[in-house]
Specification:
By secondary structure, chain A is an all-beta fold. Chain A has no helices and eleven strands. In chain A, the strands form two sheets. In chain A, strands 2, 4, 5, 9, 10 and 11 form a six-stranded mixed beta sheet that branches. In chain A, strands 1-3-8-7-6 form a five-stranded antiparallel beta sheet, with no helix packed on it. Chain A is globular, with a radius of gyration of 13 Å. Chain A starts with a strand and ends with a strand. Chain B is globular, with a radius of gyration of 13 Å. The chains are: A mainly beta (111), B mainly beta (116). At the A-B interface, strand 5 and strand 10 of A face strand 5, strand 9 and strand 10 of B.
Chain lengths: 111, 116
């Protein structure tokens, strides 16, 4: 079983749609959680951290379920510019060396 | 915001040659930098942690004699792929954290290596 598992997609949705991604992790002792965005052939960029109480940043909402060991990302009112691969990243501790990256979920927003 | 510059962005080389990739933190000092490799449709895999003024820490399965890392200053780390072979063709990405010890990373733009 992979340490961090994501549905690779692709998710093809029309503009304005709401789309949700899930990510499961195997290490119950994981302490930090992030969503990164990676455009094709580019570097990952931090989208948002995920907090225990859940957090929202504009059209993006992230939630953490420690009991079931998954995190989610909800994107409302999808824009064409949201098309990218979304990486789930889980940290076993506060050290960057212990970050584990998922292989990503590909999203394409269609006009 | 924090910027990490990586060069070259792409390189094509012949099998058996060596390739050097540079990673610079432009507006902050980085005592630690991280080197990742990403194959198509796969996740980023940490290769090694580069430590300023000391030896790099390599992850299991990564050959330290093949992937030479030098972190000679607080703003520059280099990765040299020695005697490159086609199976080394990949996307190499460096990263650093603005805050020492923190785990929020800023990535370089990556270097796409193709070995013929």
């Amino acid at each position: 079983r992979k340490e961090v598992e994501q549905d690779p997609g692709p998710f093809n949705v029309p503009e304005g749609a709401t789309v949700a991604f899930n990510c499961t992790y195997s290490n119950s002792a994981s302490q930090s959680f992030f969503w990164y965005r990676q455009d094709c052939r580019k570097e990952p960029k931090l989208l948002m951290s995920v907090y225990s109480s859940g957090n929202e940043d504009g059209r993006f909402t992230a939630q953490l379920n420690r009991a079931s060991q998954y995190i989610s990302l909800l994107i409302r009112d999808s824009k064409l510019s949201d098309s990218a691969t979304y990486l789930c990243v889980v940290g076993a501790s506060g050290s960057a060396r212990q970050l584990t990256f998922g292989s990503g979920t590909q999203l394409t927003v269609l006009p | 915001g924090a910027v990490v510059s990586q060069h070259p962005s792409w390189v094509i080389c012949k099998s058996g040659t060596s390739v050097k990739i540079e990673c610079r933190s432009l507006d902050f000092q980085a005592t630690t930098m991280f080197w990742y490799r990403q194959f198509p449709k796969q996740s980023l895999m940490l290769m090694a942690t580069s430590n300023e003024g000391s030896k790099a820490t390599y992850e299991q399965g990564v050959e330290k004699d093949k992937f030479l890392i030098n972190h000679a200053s607080l703003t520059l780390s280099t990765l040299t792929v020695t005697s490159a072979h086609p199976e080394d063709s990949s996307f190499y990405i460096c990263s650093a954290s603005v805050y020492p010890g923190a785990n929020v990373l800023t990535f370089g733009a990556g270097s796409r290596l193709t070995v013929l």
